Amino acid sequence: MKVVVMGCGRVGARVASILDHNGHDVTVIDTNAIAFRRLSPDFSGDTVLGTGIDEDVLKAAGIERADAFIAVTNGDNRNIMAGQVAQTMFDVGNVIVRIYDPVREDTYRRLGLSTVCPTTTISALIIDQVIGASDPYRRVATRGA
Q1: How far apart are alpha carbons 85 and 114 in whole angstroms?
Q2: Number of domains within the chain
Q3: In sequence order, what DSSP letters do the residues of 94-129 get, joined into one string?
């Protein structure tokens, strides 16, 4: 499977390294060349310096043959925009974007992007540990948090 990962922070580097280790064709995009040092020492994929909202950068990363696009920079706007470009302009079938703002996550999920919101996920995990997963009010308390 061809996967393009935008963002080589801790999450992007880990995801890219695991996918590469499992035999996938991975290209990582980042605006900072030093970020590529986070990749596993045995990473055999490609790296592209640039921003993932630039069509030429995406093409250099192989977006035209990508099965999946993952946007995990620290910027919600960049992730959303790049995800929409990958989905609409390049017809990538599996687009996943990290969005920190739960309100925005819900909006863009309804527009067809697959989203991951660490704010919502971590909040739910903490509440599970504090209150317990069996508490019937847990879901109500975390909804929209």
Answers
A1: 14
A2: 1
A3: EEEEE-S-HHHHHHHHHTT-EEE-HHHHHHHHHHHH
Question: Residues 62-84: pLDDT tens digits?
Answer: 999 999 999 999 999 999 999 99
Structure tokens at 2: 């061809």
Alpha helices in 30-117 (DSSP H): 55-60, 76-88, 102-110
Range of the domain at 55: 2-98
Establish if 106 belongs to a structural domain.
no
Residue written as tokens 């099965």?
67
Give domain status of residue 114, yes or no: no
Dihedral of CA 81/82/84/88: which sign?
positive
Note whether residue 69 is domain-resident.
yes
pLDDT for the residue numbered 145:
47
